[in-house]
Fold this protein.
Amino acid sequence: MLLSILLFPLLGFLSGSIFGHRLGTGVCFTTTTFTFFSFSLSFLLLFYITQTGNVYILNLAQWIYVDSLELNWSFCFDSLTAIMLIVITFISTLVHLYSTEYMENDPHLPRFMSYLSLFTFFMLILVTANNFLQMFVGWEGVGVSSYLLINFWFTRIQANKAAIKAMLINRVGDFALLLAIFCIYFVYHTLDYEIIFNLASVTNTLYLTVGDFQLPILDFICLLLFIGAMGKSAQLGLHTWLPDAMEGPTPVSALIHAATMVTAGIFLICRCSYLFEFSPFTLNTIVLIGSATAFFASTTGLFQNDMKRVIAYSTCSQLGYMIFACGLSSYEVGLFHLSNHAFFKALLFLGAGSVIHALSDEQDMRKMGAMKKLLPFSFAIMLIGSFALMGFPFLAGFYSKDVILEVSYATFTICARFSYVLGVLAAFCTAFYSVRLLYLVFLSSSSNSKKVVLNAHEGTIRMSFPLIFLCFLSIFVGLSSKDLFIGFGTDFWGSSLFTTPFKYTLSDIEFINIYFKLFPLAITILGASCSFVLYKYLTTFYYFIKKTIAFKRYYNFFNKKWYFDRIYNELLTQVALNSSYSYYYNTIDRGVIEKLGPFGIISIINSLVKNIKTFQTGFIFDYLTYFVISSIFFYLFTIEKVELVLFLVLLYLCTSIIYTIKKTFLSKKQLVDIA
């Protein structure tokens, strides 16, 4: 049963890639069915683990046996893996079903469905691996699959650029993760999870010495692991690929941003909690970068006009919440928000896809409006998803996001208080742009053409059923799973997560003043109210403000994503390209390497050949001279010293006599006539 969870998506990929031209639209049925079977088995596994608390290890086959490195194809099924399997397979099943109608007019539908199944398969490899190298296989497979999905419409230049950008930026994080794996093997002489995690406390005293500087080896490893997580989970600095990934079809956005690829970094941190708990420096770094990402992405989403980009930046912001929750050693809280976020974020993306599909692929919110009456079902879906994202009371996001802020407030460190302030500000911005999206798309006056309005329609049951299911879960999943995930005294996580006793703060949040517990909710309501009042009643005032020079600067700053792309393109990429051309290409490549390499060898041979040609005079006296000189070297090491001296003297006399006769009695013309 356990192995079948992984095999079903693989079968779906093979059915679409090999038999897609024969099955046609039948690929939709096979891939969706196989993914649903995988979800059913994952749900059964979660039930068993919840009831028994067991951890299932499946050793499939030998893989690498070199010296002290012994690796098997081994799979670990514990509570952490079970939750990730449920989230991945469930969202993937709904995305498959949704795509059967959303992409039904695309001529390459079988290829698209097979890519979705391939993505799901590699994600399952990632979360079920029992060693770092096998996990890295799934990690890289997810990157390749995301490239194929983002670049699915490969005839579009922007899709090409977005896919390449996602691949290159993730290369940075992947390289850091690979270095971390090398360091782990160097320290522990194995890559097996169980052995490494059991030895983590022992290696806490080892240091990496560079000159006079000493760095704890565990800090170095954890920093590299976190940089790897930053790439996949789009944290500040390596986040720029995430909004551009919107160039792919909308179901791809739902699959990548909701439940799979972007959560790989959070999963990695939680899986390696045994290492991170002994690296306080890395945990503080995680808190700072996670909270900064939450604030940055929420402010950037304030003035974005593309509907999918607004939701993409909200994903980046929510990932920041999850990351700094893990940095506060509340891994279970981060995973709780991960599971809740997967449902309402998939709901938002698929709901946005429903609106875009109804409006003939229009994504600019400024060209929408008054869709409430034309698309009432989509309006209800987006309303519930946006309120869950804001953390409105009794919806999924309320139970997890507020707990993260309470944990940050209950942790008495400077980094934790810093994260609390930025988290509250991010909550205000999230509420603001969520209501802004709802108003511009559904409540404002219409800006669409007559043709688009007349053709607007809701999707069929294949598009509506996933939305209804996600809507139901976005309302109730937080309340129903709260006690299982973060309930006081719950033993659900078992040995899959590790927190040192003095860092456990979930019990402390019960003693926080009620005003600080309600403060994030008040800020959220304030942000939503400000947005609605501004766009509903103060449009004239807002228009006047927008014309001021000061506001234009702020607007451009946030709309242009804090100029991160410009900084990377002009200050980093362009400088690197210019220096590479002027120094590495001209000086080293064309200068040193070519002269010492092929062109240098060719020029030396040509010059030698030209010099050797001058010896070919055609005169017997010259050839006799060459013969005498070569004879010297032939007898040089075969005769005694006295005989050598006499031989050299005699040779010199003979050569002088021959040369004198040549110069005195015969001219070149005479020699030519004789010849």
The first helix runs from residue 2 to 18. The chain has two domains: 2-559, 618-675. The chain is about 75% helix and 5% strand.
